[in-house]
């Protein structure tokens, strides 16, 4: 997948990232590393747009979750497939989800360990639980690529490892920003390091550890 | 900074100067023989409310609630349906036209078509409220978190996007606003009684005419309780129950039937300017200039006199009342008392207060000015007081009058001016309405034209009233923008929920 070609990314006159070229092969699991403000979110947004422009089905886990707090966890998950159906079908789902849809959504909620919370409004859930709802919504959506901006930042390490496995099994290709280097090394088939508005390293996860740590140095 | 401050004081000085110029022209005569005796009788009635006429009172209360619930529900539903399309010019202008005509004026006009019945009462509330609801709900929807909708991408159909990712996010604030509107609806519904619908205003009027002050006091007491407790008895869960009860109650109301084809006659004959109707288009200019000379200009002059004086009075009251409810200024007991006074003054619609003052002082501009000044002053004072109570003060800040003068007044002065400007347009609209009570403002000439069945003149006066209020609204918005307070209402609403939207 040819995604970006010497693109300047960012808002307005001063781009956050300059001259980025990015190919991602189907089956790759790409992890973006870098300090906060290095441009990971900017790059992810551009990647998502490029994938959408190519007509691919993208599942997104945004950093701020973008959930509807007043709706239940189950309905937030069901939102993942609204564009597959027409307005009438979706209205019926909102009022009372069909058996099959509900079962499918519950399966996904089970994968992220939220079955008991399915019918609770998202605004009553904890930060970690909300993040898992956002992940479940992306899993329920499914698709060619998962684009995730810190999708596992608010869950405990053991759970993060397990959920990384769930993502690996559910999506052929994934592009994630992660701040936990160990989690990234266990998950990625390819690491991209960002610093000072540029791609500083790009390669397999056997990159020497001190090069990775240099990304976070001042 | 300094320039802005000067202009705030300049605005205040300007309004004070205009009011001083208005004063010699205002008719402030007391026509009543002995206002204090009348006031004494009234006070005695309120202090010893007489619930003896329980059947009549109950019916009036139930019908007041029924008209309010049905009118607000219909207006709210129509507004909700229009809100997503508010950015289209047709919808926006329809809504502006709907809400620029006051409930009472709607009722007076509707009576010509639908008679003195349920339809008139419900529509008189529902039509203007639909326009207001559409505007405010569209603002609430626009302000809701856009991110869930962005997540959905571009392929989702608009209805699903609205129902899944927009409406739920806006719902809490919409419910809050609807409750506030119901409070307004209860006021409107009660006031509609004064022009003949079977609600509290009608009952109050008849008790007053029979000199039964105790029974009138009972009605007032029930009315205040009804409005103060609206968030207790109206629960979102119970909406359907209240709606069914309202419809059941309204179906009991009997009204004389209207002839067939009234609406058509009204639209194609009654409201067409007389010269056109008589096939004399050349006479239109003479008709209009005569109408302007004899009704619109004198009415407008009186309306503006009343409004400017009332605005200054409201400002004065608010200026002092803003710290009435701050315990650090007036003490705990003082603050409770302040709350009570402000709640009572806020609960009563201007129209009802003016009616009461009219009984005391007789017909002049005085009752209208007092009513508008007290009611609006209490609203501004309440809003400012809530902000004053929330001010972050240093630990060694003074208390009492020193706090009022050195902290509260200077810190809230910008808000004070902005809120007064905001109420300006509302005060003008209301002083036009008070003409129905017999004060020579625009409403008086309108009522007169309707009584003479010259509906073409009534419509022309109505349009003039709407244009004036729209003009003042624009002027006030410009002044507020110059003060840097253009977004006052939105901010207030978000911080304080429904009550702050009292500014609307």
From TrEMBL, chain A:
InterPro entries attached to this UniProt entry: AAA+_ATPase, ABC_transporter-like_ATP-bd, ABC_transporter-like_CS, ABC_transpr_LolD-like, P-loop_NTPase
Keywords: ATP-binding, Nucleotide-binding
Domain named ABC transporter: residues: 1-217
Superkingdom in the source lineage: Bacteria
SUPFAM superfamilies per UniProt: P-loop containing nucleoside triphosphate hydrolases
An MF annotation (GO) of this entry: ATP binding
Protein name listed in UniProt: ATP-binding cassette domain-containing protein
TrEMBL record, chain B:
Record membrane topology: Multi-pass membrane protein
Keywords linked to the UniProt accession: Cell membrane, Membrane, Transmembrane, Transmembrane helix, Transport
Chief localisation class: membrane
InterPro entries per UniProt: MetI-like_sf
Subcellular location: Cell membrane
Gene3D superfamilies named among the record's database cross-references: MetI-like
Keyword Transmembrane attributed: yes
Regions crossing the membrane: 57-83, 104-127, 213-233, 238-255, 295-321, 364-384, 426-446, 458-475
Protein name: ABC transporter permease
